[in-house]
């Protein structure tokens, strides 16, 4: 069994298909503890709940209703949730604009993947952050 089984990941995306794809790819890395949120607002509520298991990694879409990925990044990096401000955050976006990518990095994205994401790019980014995964 991989050490990765103990990792907990929060996947935030307004598209159920993307959340399912990410869950499947994380499973290939041995990660089974996966929580989901449909938007940044729902994720922020979970991350501010003392009873919610804190994630070791967050994977979030950039463009969502209610609260987008930049808003969520900002809340986390400013310490407005109950998780470590340094938690790695991978941003998924269909936006090809380099300025959007730069702003995401400035706000605190650990990595940015452009949709459509491939299995290799997602698992590669996760394994870069957690090299002990198989």
Provide tags for this entry:
single chain, about 130 residues, alpha/beta, Rossmann fold, 5-stranded parallel sheet, globular
Structural summary, described in words:
Helix content is 38%, strand content 18%. It is α/β, with parallel strands linked by helices. A five-stranded parallel sheet has the order 2-1-3-4-5, with helices on both faces. α1 (16-28) links the parallel β1 and β2 (33-37). The longest helix has 13 residues, at 16-28.
What is the CATH topology classification name?
Rossmann fold
Strand content: 15-25%
Q: What value does the average pLDDT take?
A: 92
Structure summary, number of beta strands:
5
Distance between the termini: 9 Å
The chain-level structural class is alpha/beta
Report the order of strands and helices: EHEHEHEHEH
Number of domains as seen in the coordinates: 1
Largest beta sheet, briefly?
5 strands, parallel
Shape: globular
Counting DSSP H or I runs of 4 or more residues, the number of helices is 5
How much helicity do the residues have? 25-40%
Q: In CATH, what is the class?
A: Alpha Beta
Query: What is the architecture at the second tier of CATH?
Result: 3-Layer(aba) Sandwich
Radius of gyration over all CA atoms, rounded: 14 Å
* Widest sheet: strand ordering: 2-1-3-4-5
CATH superfamily descriptor: Response regulator
User: Low-confidence parts lasting 5 or more residues at pLDDT below 50?
Assistant: none
């Amino acid at each position: 069994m991989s050490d990765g089984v103990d990792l907990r990941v929060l996947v935030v995306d307004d598209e159920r298909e993307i959340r399912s794809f990410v869950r499947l790819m994380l499973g290939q890395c041995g990660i089974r503890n996966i929580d989901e949120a449909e938007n940044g607002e729902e994720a922020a509520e979970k991350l501010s709940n003392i009873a919610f298991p804190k994630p070791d990694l967050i994977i979030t879409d950039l463009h969502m209703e209610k609260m987008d990925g930049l808003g969520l990044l900002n809340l986390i990096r400013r310490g407005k949730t109950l998780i470590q401000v340094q938690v790695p955050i991978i941003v998924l976006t269909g936006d090809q604009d380099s300025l959007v990518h730069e702003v995401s990095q400035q706000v605190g994205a650990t990595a940015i993947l452009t949709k459509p994401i491939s299995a290799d790019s997602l698992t590669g980014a996760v394994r870069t952050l957690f090299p002990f995964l198989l």
